[in-house]
Amino acid sequence: MDDSALPEMPSHLRELIFPQQCPDKCFACAFVKRNLVHKLVRDKHLKNLQSLTNVSHVNTEHIIPFNSVACTIIRIKVYAKGDSPQLSVRLVLKTLNIQHQQVEVILKSFMSEVAFYNIVAKLLYIFPRSHFVFPKCYLDSFQWMDDGPPYIVLEDLIADGYEQFDDKLDENHLKAVFKHLGMFHGDSIRLVTNERFDSKSNFSKLMKNDTLIANKDQIMIKQKEAISAFLNNSLIEAVNSGIRDKIRTKLEKVKDLEKSNISLVHGSLTRYKTFYKQCNGECKIKFIGFKTIMLSSPVIDFGRILFTNLPNENDVSKLEEFCRNILEIYLKQIELSCSEMVQCVERQIIDNLLFSYVSLDTKESEAIENHIPILNMLNSLGSLD
């Protein structure tokens, strides 16, 4: 996982003549039909297709317009033979668009996501609840090979009935998200603190990987810039002087967050990377887009989801009650994973919520209408102490 060890793209891949299997003549669609489905069937990843002779045909569809980004995402439909071909399997392939001029730019972040599924997700399956919080990965590859670039093959959440959040979450959906976030963080903390993984294990090497460290460094740089901008914002002058002084003093302690490496976190979790599905009266949640994973404080994920979905409430006591209820739901899941860490996690969340608040991007911050009540609520929670 060292950056120096990342395999280079074979030069011949850029020079291939792409077959007429896709309107865009992309390599990925050809790769799916020539190689990927064969691998999935051969290695028994698709239980309802026992051999390649059972496959009638394969359809591919670009989820994101081809060549719009350097990452290609393709929906795959595999049809089984029969009197009339039956749709048997739906999958999603995520890989690099080797025809895009920016492909080298996103290589490291894409490899972080491959590493999540190749190493972290497999270890999290040790814990029985973890498969609830991210898509199932059928196959992955770190390597540039003759048959294509690195890739991951995931379950198709849309085909399985999941929907993507595109608006502010209501209270019930938000509670479901924090329940599942608590599952992910709780099991991640168990993984990070598990003494069975020695310094030579793939997981230990991943935690020291330059890209993951760079992910956190980038977060901290942006956070310090956000703090500087916030301290010069007229908003801070609108709160009373006592709270204003506490905010200024608290924001000088940003280094405390740099040392809070207790959990593996998503790093850029938003509602747009969150899918939901109602099933038997329960709301199931799946998170996607793990290209910014890092070892850090759980507040990085917790705070952003909380502040971008808080109700537009001006009553500080009601806001505080709402936040404490959300925190209780989240901590209950932490307790189920690692009861000895509950107080530590609770303290980290409360102590560092202000950093999450000031780190919201411009669009997220502008969507909030009750900034002053939120700052007063943080004071009531003890986040400014």
UniProtKB/TrEMBL annotation:
Pfam families: EcKL (PF02958). Transmembrane segments: none annotated. Residues 152-336 form the CHK kinase-like domain. Gene3D superfamilies: 3.90.1200.10. InterPro entries: CHK_kinase-like, EcKL, Kinase-like_dom_sf. PANTHER family: PROTEIN KINASE-LIKE DOMAIN-CONTAINING. This is CHK kinase-like domain-containing protein. It comes from Ooceraea biroi (Clonal raider ant). The lineage of its organism: Eukaryota, Metazoa, Ecdysozoa, Arthropoda, Hexapoda.
